[in-house]
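Just scan this pair:

***
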Amino acid sequence: MNNIFSVVVHKEKKYYVAECPEVGTVSQGKTIEEAIENLKEATELYLEEFPLKKTSKPFVSFFEVTSHGKASKAIRA
């Protein structure tokens, strides 16, 4: 049975990092295509060992943050 999963890709220095939010698998590659192909392989291997019973599609949205050059105060927890 084939499943369709989401992928989120971002660049870190020399490599693209691909993540599957539904499963939690992560991989990387020199190109976006390579990162996604490596993620597909990692996810297939993961699911062989840990099959999913049920998945739901993640909700994707965006938000905006105003960035400032320098923080005025340190935040302590």
